[in-house]
Amino acid sequence: MRQLFGKRTILSVATLAALSAGAAQAQQGDPLYRYQWHLMNYGQAVLGDTKPTFAVDLGIDDLHDYNIRGKGVVVGVLDEGVDIHHADLAANVVPNGSKNFDPGRPEHDPTPTTPDYGHGTSVAGIIAAVGWNGIGVRGVAPSARLKSFNGFGDVSTSLSEDKIFYAWWNGAEAQDVDISSNSWGVGSGSPQTFSENQVDAYEKPMAAARNGRGRVYVKAAGNNNLQRDSFFGRIKCAQAILDANVGCVQTGLDPRNNLFGVMTIASVDATGKRAVYSSAGSALWVSGLGGEFGGERAVLSEATRTRLAETFGDAAIVSPAIVTTDPSGCAMGYNREDAEAFNRLDHAASAIDASCDYNGTMSGTSAAAPTVSGVAALVLQANPKLGAREVKYILATTARQVDKDQPDVKHANGTLLVPGWRKNAAGHFFSNWYGFGLVDATAAVELAGRVKSLPALVDSGWQRVAPAQAVAIGGAGAPAKLQIAIDRDIGKIEGVQLGLATNYSSSSNTPFPLQIVLVSPKGTRSTIVPAMTSVSSSAFKLDFAASNAFLDEPAKGTWTLEIADVPLAANAAAKGKLNSFKIRVLGH
Prior knowledge:
Blueprint: H1 13-29, E1 74-80, H2 119-128, E2 145-152, H3 161-170, E3 179-182, H4 196-208, E4 216-220, H5 239-244, E5 262-268, E6 284-289, H6 302-312, H7 314-317, E7 322-325, E8 358-362, H8 365-382, H9 388-398, E9 409-410, E10 416-418, E11 422-423, E12 429-430, H10 441-448, E13 458-459, E14 463-465, E15 471-472, E16 480-486, E17 493-502, E18 511-512, E19 514-519, E20 525-529, E21 533-534, E22 541-547, E23 557-565, E24 577-587
Helix pairs in contact: 2-8, 8-10, 9-10
């Protein structure tokens, strides 16, 4: 596995010069490529007031030069509509392969007509903008084919479950899609109702796609780590929650992030650390590159910079974002004439690009997820026979452990709330901020060429316990515990799902005091919900959660759920009880 800051930090001056020359040559084919630090990062100046940290990129290295570019792979983008006529996308768009859900509009043309709808086009460009065509940018997989499903349409603006089902498996245009890229989610601080029947209704057709090999589903983790106000419409968190540093809203509260077939993606910035907004949680799989905000002090107004800095910090506002495609022209998308300029790329007066067909401010896990979709496309080109389980496994086991010194997060009384990196009993490092780490395209493609198919999936089914007498939830030294023995012969875990119910009530926008931890038979501890995060519930019940921290451990043995009321004084009476616990383990 290539380690960040390992291989490249010992390069000679001559090699660095060659890298720079190669970047200059590449720029001739794609003029904005030099600003795409996520593809090739040699510490060059990009958009934003700070330079990216050397070697923080997707590890594509020479793959594109060896024609590993996603050829033959179809990626479906479920999002706002994509400008399928964009000069830097059109050649990769499958003719009549997209779906417009808006009534009264062309069925196969989801090109947005609402001026500020730039999100889907930006996502598509990150994945598969055409390379070496003399204009603009390059995608992570610049030869992959694109399909757009405008779940968030100009008319039908809400994403309904029938649209998800259509884009994910049952739509006519979805049948040949290999990878489904999803930069959307539920941002609520309240646990969502999601039954076992709903889980089944998703996971069975997901696994059956691609002739039984399974479609690769990539999904953004959410941007709810740090939220001091309702900017961008996200949930507002109280200062006490932010001070606890566990994350405003956990990614697992969006139930689709917990599905077995879904890879939930965190975001890393240009320094190689988690982006300030990136949602944390045990449901994470790997990280992509989403950057920060891409602002430049010489361009961005002081008032806007100050307002954003109050929420996200000044450093994030002027740190590099992702440069990608924008809906064509200066009247559409993020880069339009009537929107405030953030950096030198914006507006028709730009000396870098006067077309307004590109933007340099795409960020969020919405940007990180399509970088992983692009890497998955490179992997599938290298080995088209891979199933979705193999792709997931490859990306996890070749990911790079960034921010190795990530500290533990502890409560004022010393209780561990969120651990830093932890090695599980099978030897894999996992983090609730990064999953298994930042994807590494070259390492993943190399492994794809020699990996063997995983054995048939074994599913323990839902196992449950609900004692006649509910268990009192004590303080950190006396957690409530329930145990379930798994007797299925699953030698290597691929995923764990769970649910629980309590009678504990929590108020909106006050730190949730319960620490929820799952312990494997081998002793690996995974924080499912950290105390002091944002949870609102009249009687806390988590229908459906997931942890990926147990990859490759054996499932057989006793699993323990622990719930503690962390701020509770040592001898204080319990304020709630643990009523039930259920668990499902999948692997081989």
